[in-house]
Design brief:
By secondary structure, this protein is of the alpha+beta class. It is built from 13 helices and 13 strands. Helix content is 52%, strand content 17%. The strands form 3 sheets. It has a 5-stranded antiparallel β-sheet, with helices on both faces. β9 and β10 form a beta hairpin. The termini are far apart. The structure holds adenosine-5'-diphosphate.
């Protein structure tokens, strides 16, 4: 068009027709170039804006280029997002760990630590970043561990919250990784250490308890073998030996009871135990014990409400009640009284109480009575055939039946031991009026 107009006005009609065509082509190319540059600039501006959501050109070569760039950018963004999500998941998992995790750089400065590490060492996750770990945790044992640089094993140290009343023990282990970096892991081992200490004490106590009667027994055996004793002396020695053997038997029997209580499933909540026969048996056994220990039965009074049943184990309930009644007999001098009561409670539960007028217990001793082998008066316990395990058994049985044990005592005046069974474990007799109505129905 432009070529035709130009040739009509500015080129003589005699000029060949090729000129307008060339001019037209040149002009068209120029226009194409202008358009192309404009589109290219637009794509360039779009790329520098960073917003690759919408393509700036929808057609032609630039349209194709920008569309491919947009798709590439989108897939990169997605990959980065996925990596970020994975990293956040990983951090969340490290935060959720009950163990402390601290990432240290080549100079042992804190790069990151989780919540548990913060409470183990008293760190602040933001304030203490890039602080040297050794400057913040100054336990001498840990300092020596750091100084040796030998991280094959762990080191034990007190936690930040540790006090003498409530000790906290940490196991800290450092693991070098990557380029001179270190991963520090901390674990609260207080419970493990306490369990281990208890196990050691228990083994030592059992060995001691068994060794004493064994030593006495072997002494008697030696005497019987080496001395020429008359019949009466022999009989007395044999009686003393039988007493020691009996002591060992009671100890082993109580140990077995304890281990059964710890290792067996909880007593059934569906088996209903009638309590009267148990009390009858306890009354018989307590009178017998009282006669053996004190020569004449003590004042033993039983007030047992009828028809109250408890869901649980007959053997365990009998063992707990007999231990408490037996203790009352053993720690109450002759001539004094013991009162045993079993009664319903207003809340639908039931309460067992044994009150004695015996030696009593000082207030500070009461919280420790249910510990294994804990005795207030060691010699009195031994003289009366105690093993030091009775109240530990009572505590286990009580807990296994969802019940509560409470102890109150005044030295010189006597003690009261109470077990409260919850309504869920107790079946009370129907009130007589109601019983008649149901019977009639
Ligand atoms: P033991 O076999 O020595 O009696 P227990 O576990 O039954 O062991 O009791 C722990 C300690 O509690 C006893 O050694 C005793 O000092 C004290 N104790 C338990 N019952 C009574 C009681 N009724 N009166 C006074 N002291 C008691």
């Amino acid at each position: 068009m432009f070529g035709w107009w130009f040739s009509r006005n500015f080129v003589s009609p005699s000029a060949p027709t090729l000129v307008p065509m060339v001019l037209s082509a040149l002009f068209a190319s120029y226009l194409w170039l202008l358009l192309d540059v404009a589109l290219g600039m637009r794509v360039l501006r779009w790329l520098s804006s960073g917003d690759t959501l919408q393509t700036p050109v929808a057609f032609g070569l630039w349209g194709e280029i920008s569309d491919r760039v947009r798709r590439l950018a989108r897939s990169r963004e997605r990959a980065v997002q996925q990596r970020d999500d994975r990293f956040q998941d990983f951090l969340a998992a490290m935060q959720a760990s009950p163990n402390g995790v601290v990432l240290l750089d080549a100079d042992l400065r804190i790069e990151w630590c989780n919540q548990s590490a913060q409470s183990h060492f008293g760190l602040d996750g933001t304030r203490d970043l890039l602080q040297h770990f050794g400057n913040l945790v100054r336990d001498p044992g840990f300092a020596a561990y750091l100084a040796t640089g030998d991280f094959k094993g762990d080191v034990l140290m007190p936690g930040r919250a540790s006090t003498s009343a409530k000790p906290v023990r940490l196991s800290v282990h450092m693991h070098p990784y990557g380029e001179s970096r270190t991963l520090l892991l901390s674990r609260d081992v207080t419970a493990v250490e306490q369990a281990e200490a208890m196990r050691r004490d228990f083994v030592a106590n059992v060995s001691h308890e068994i060794r004493t009667p064994l030593t006495v027994l072997s002494g008697f055996v030696e005497t019987l073998q080496s001395l020429n004793l008359n019949e009466e002396e022999r009989a007395r020695y044999l009686q003393l030996m039988a007493l020691q053997a009996e002591r060992m038997q009671s100890l082993v029997s109580d140990l077995l009871t304890l281990s059964r209580l710890e290792g067996s499933p909880l007593p059934s909540a569906q088996e209903w135990v009638s309590m009267e026969p148990i009390f009858e048996q306890c009354r018989h056994e307590a009178s017998e014990l009282s006669r053996v220990l004190w020569g004449q039965p003590q004042g033993l009074e039983f007030h047992i409400a009828p028809d109250i049943t408890v869901a649980g184990s007959v053997v365990e309930l009998h063992s707990a009640l007999l231990n408490l009644i037996g203790n009352a007999v053993r720690y109450t001098p002759e001539g004094k009284n013991i009162y045993v009561r079993w009664q319903a409670q207003a809340d639908g539960g039931a309460e067992f109480t044994v009150r004695d007028e015996g030696v009593g217990i000082a207030a500070e001793q009461i919280p420790r009575l249910t510990e294994r082998f804990y005795r207030v008066d060691r010699s009195r316990s031994r003289e009366t055939g105690g093993t030091g395990l009775g109240l530990a058994i009572v505590k286990h049985v009580t807990q296994r039946h969802g019940a509560e044990l409470s102890i109150s005592s005044l030295p010189g005046q006597g003690s009261t031991f109470t077990i409260r069974f919850p309504a869920s474990r107790v079946c009370l007799p129907k009130p007589s009026g109601l019983a008649n109505l149901t019977d009639a129905a």
